[in-house]
TrEMBL record, chain A:
Top-level taxon of origin: Bacteria
Main location class: membrane
Name of protein: Putative ABC transport system permease protein
Native organism: Pontibacter ramchanderi
Pfam families assigned to the protein according to its UniProt record, in alphabetical order: FtsX (PF02687), MacB_PCD (PF12704)
TrEMBL record, chain B:
Localization: Cell membrane
Protein name: Putative ABC transport system permease protein
Species this chain originates from: Pontibacter ramchanderi
Domain ABC3 transporter permease C-terminal: 275-385
Pfam families documented for this protein: FtsX, MacB_PCD
Lineage: Bacteria, Pseudomonadati, Bacteroidota, Cytophagia, Cytophagales
Length: 413, 392
């Protein structure tokens, strides 16, 4: 019976090629756009090399000082603050301090390479999971001795050394020579807290270690013992910050700084306000965008489906005349609809894989490595099925309840 | 005729409901995307007010704490750069140089007037030459301003309009951040330094006066002769690194910074346009399919009309008309919704942008509707009355 239904479904699809095309196009393209959007979201916020244990990692990337009279200054925190107040926190498993990346120039064979350089300590390599292509990270020893060693990414190795190994060779950036000790896979630029082309020991920077300013050019990356410890870390941080606020030389200055996860950090920058992270707003905006985007294809799918079923009213009439029950007819349409949706889903899957491959390959996004998110794909497919069933099966059901004669005549009366 | 068509659609409003709502949402999507595009295109077509070709930006990050020492090194750097034959001029500038990502806002006010938020750029006297600004009223900074009682500033036309209206601004005083007073000595017509796709916003140029207050700026704009390339850049950076030992020197072209800014505006716009294009295409296909089916179901009616003497052309016009009326129903709803944006000033955007976008969106929807109805209506009109009636 099932085989028969599938056969009929296939024949029906072939008979009205244009309608089939519209349905398949709608399903597959909607799924594709949804997949690309989620891939981009994952690319920006999801767990990804090197930030894999996202539920255990927090970042401190902002320090805002608000003085009396509404005058405010904000920027990344200073080394002194992070070293004295954040590194000494007791709840985290480990804390790393690293500079924001800066662009420096390197010249080779009459070409200019603009390299983004980041100064880090050795904890940085333990907290984050970089994938080393060759060599390894620098350790506490190298950092203490301020040795001129560097870890570079694959793209820099390609641009600077060509298609060879790089470990043990010398790379000159900003007129300083570094010995390469490791090469890692490229990190996407959206991973602000880990991204760079070249990582070198923090101790090579001599500036502003003595400055007492709270703002500077550094981030802290905090790793918790377990994901349940996250709140404890946030609370301890808040207590310490209040302490710093009290000791601030200028009375009445308010300080705002938080250890945030990646999404929280993003939401706070654009939508947040004081102690509110802006996460609720971010999710509301995202949900509204997805809903609005899905609405049009959904209406379209419903519209097309209703037309398709109406067109087949005489077929339903004939089947009824030969004694088919309502449930048999509905069963047939359910199977037909699932068949069509799955076909569209398959096409959508192939399309999204192709488009993601194209984006990765074209280099529109620097060092992108976009992948399919199967969970979201399944969800998208599920919604397509729901809409398909509601719009395809409900009219069929109504028609199957009609009088045989009425159905034979077109079912419109 | 038109009333008749409206009546026809109204009578079948239940079955047409989905089509109308599809057109309604389609219009909203088009309106939103077009508003963004129109906004960007309008801004892009306005003059920038400066010339960025052959201008480089050197950013120096010091590794010493002492401000005096920093300034001394910066002075040496500037002199070295000016000594090259390839360099036409240099100018110190604050970190919000043209197309930079940083901003520095100050409140400006005249007497008891309203406070206006303006971008404040600290610039050296040579800035006008390096960026080729055009001062339309008053004059640019010169050496003679060293002894001026008030710090001199040059403002752009937008700020002049907001602070002084149609009066001349030259010689007038502006209170900055409720504390210091500065004197306007010149007005430039345009300066849109933040992005080519941004609206022109109020700008104040403040004169850098190292004699009065010595500050380490760390950013130097350099105008080089046309055709100066990478070889010179490498030589210069090498020489400069010799002067500023252990400093981080970053040299980039303003053109490169402009491209970064352009990407920031273009990428979301292109992504939205692609998604919108797909949605519209999807809707067009759906509309076409449904219209085709609906019209082909009315063969009997068409046959009857033809038999009673209606010409093929009349039948054709009726169907196109019906689709247009259908689109109008959706559009009336959509326009009623969209018109709220300019009325309530939801975002601080000129109303003109919305009206243009609205006009284009309405036009496109009608085109879409006609395009989708064209083929099915032609087919309907071509039906032979005898055939149609026979089928019935």
């Amino acid at each position: 019976m099932l085989k028969n239904y599938l056969k009929i479904a296939w024949k029906v699809l072939l008979r009205r090629k244009f309608f089939t095309f519209i349905s398949l196009f709608g399903i597959s393209f909607t799924l594709m756009v949804l997949m690309v959007a989620t891939a981009l979201y994952d690319h920006a916020f999801g767990p990804q090399m090197p930030e894999k244990d996202l539920d255990r990692i927090l970042f401190v990337n902002m320090m805002q000082e608000r003085k009396d009279g509404g005058y405010q200054m904000s920027g990344p925190p200073s080394y002194t603050f992070l070293d004295r107040k954040v590194r000494t926190l007791t709840t985290p498993e480990m804390v790393s301090i690293n500079s924001i990346f800066q662009t420096v120039n390197s010249y080779i064979d009459n070409r200019k390479l603009a390299l983004d350089i980041k100064f880090t300590d050795s904890e940085f390599w333990q907290i984050l999971d970089f994938e080393f292509v060759e060599g390894g990270p620098f350790g506490p020893q190298e950092v203490r001795n301020a040795q001129r060693v560097a870890v570079i990414n694959e793209a820099t190795r390609q641009n600077y050394f060509g298609n060879t190994t790089a470990v043990g060779k010398t790379i000159v950036a900003d007129q300083v020579s570094y010995t390469v000790v490791g090469v890692v896979k490229d990190v996407p630029v959206l991973r602000l807290h880990s991204y760079a082309d070249m990582w070198v020991p923090l101790s090579l920077r001599t500036e502003d270690y003595s400055s007492t300013s709270l703002r500077g050019e550094y981030f802290a990356t905090i790793k918790a013992h377990s994901s349940s410890d996250i709140d404890n870390i946030k609370n301890e941080f808040a207590v310490i910050l209040q302490d710093v606020e009290r000791q601030h030389p200028e009375k009445g200055t308010k300080l705002y700084s938080y250890p945030d996860s990646i999404v929280e950090g993003f939401a706070r920058t654009f939508l947040g306000n004081d102690d509110d992270t802006g996460m609720a707003k971010l999710y509301a905006i995202l949900a509204a965008a997805v809903l609005l985007f899905m609405l049009l294809p959904a209406i379209n799918l419903v519209n097309i489906n209703i037309s398709r079923i109406m067109e087949r009213s005489s077929e339903i009439g004939v089947r009824k005349a030969f004694g088919a029950t309502s449930s048999t007819i509905i069963g047939q349409f359910i199977i037909e609809n699932i068949f069509l949706t799955l076909l569209g889903g398959l096409l959508g899957f192939l399309l999204s894989a192709g488009v993601l491959w194209l984006i990765n390959d074209s280099g529109v996004i620097v060092y992108a490595d976009l992948g399919l998110n199967l969970r979201v794909f399944a969800l998208g497919l599920f919604f397509c099925l729901v809409f398909g069933l509601v719009s395809g099966v409900y009219p069929a059901y109504k028609m199957s309840r009609l009088h045989t004669v009425a159905a034979l005549k077109g079912g419109n009366q | 005729m038109i009333r008749h068509l409206f009546k026809l659609i109204w009578n079948r409003k239940k079955s047409n409901f989905l089509l109308i709502s599809e057109i309604f949402f389609c219009f909203l999507v088009l309106f939103a995307v077009l508003s963004l595009v129109v906004y960007n295109v309008r801004n892009y077509s306005k003059p920038l007010g400066f010339d960025y070709d052959n201008v480089w930006l050197l950013t120096a990050r010091a590794d010493i704490d002492s401000t005096e020492l920093r300034i001394a090194v910066e002075e040496q750097l500037t002199q070295k750069i000016r000594s090259y034959g390839e360099v036409e001029g240099t100018a110190l500038v604050s970190s919000n140089s043209p197309f930079a990502f940083s901003q520095m806002k100050v409140w400006a006010k005249v007497g008891d007037g309203p406070r206006i938020l303006a971008e404040n750029l600290d610039v050296e006297d040579t800035f006008a030459e390096v960026m080729q600004l055009n001062v339309s009223a008053g004059r640019w900074f010169t050496k003679q301003d060293d002894a001026a009682r008030y710090n001199p500033v040059v403002i752009n036309r937008v700020l002049q309009q907001e602070l002084f209206g149609d009066e001349s601004a030259i010689g007038k005083l502006i209170t900055r951040d409720d504390s210091s007073q500065v004197q306007v000595i010149g007005v430039v017509d345009h300066y849109r330094g933040s992005s080519e796709y941004a609206e022109e916003s109020p700008v104040i140029f403040t004169r850098i006066n190292q004699q009065r207050e010595a500050v380490f700026w760390g950013e130097i704009l350099i105008r080089v002769k046309p055709g100066t390339g990478i070889a010179f850049e490498e030589r210069m950076v090498k020489d400069l690194s010799g002067i500023a030992k252990n400093w981080t020197l970053e040299l980039t072209t303003v053109e490169k910074m402009r491209q970064n800014k352009e990407k920031l505006s273009m990428v979301p716009m292109i992504a939205m346009a692609v998604v919108c294009g797909f949605l519209i295409f999807n809707v067009a296909l759906g509309l076409f399919g449904v219209l085709w089916y609906n019209i082909s179901r009315r063969n009997g009616e068409i046959g009857l009309r033809r038999a009673l003497g209606a010409s093929a052309n009349q039948v054709y016009r009726q169907f196109i008309g019906e689709v247009l009326v259908l689109a109008t129903f959706g559009l009336v709803l959509g326009v009623a919704f969209a018109i709220q944006f300019p009325m309530l000033q939801v975002f601080e955007v000129e109303s003109m942008v919305y009206f243009i976008a609205l006009g284009i969106a309405v036009g496109l929807i009608y085109l879409l509707a006609i395009g989708c109805a064209f083929y099915p209506s032609r087919q309907a009109a071509a039906i032979h009355p005898a055939m149609a009636l026979h089928e019935e």
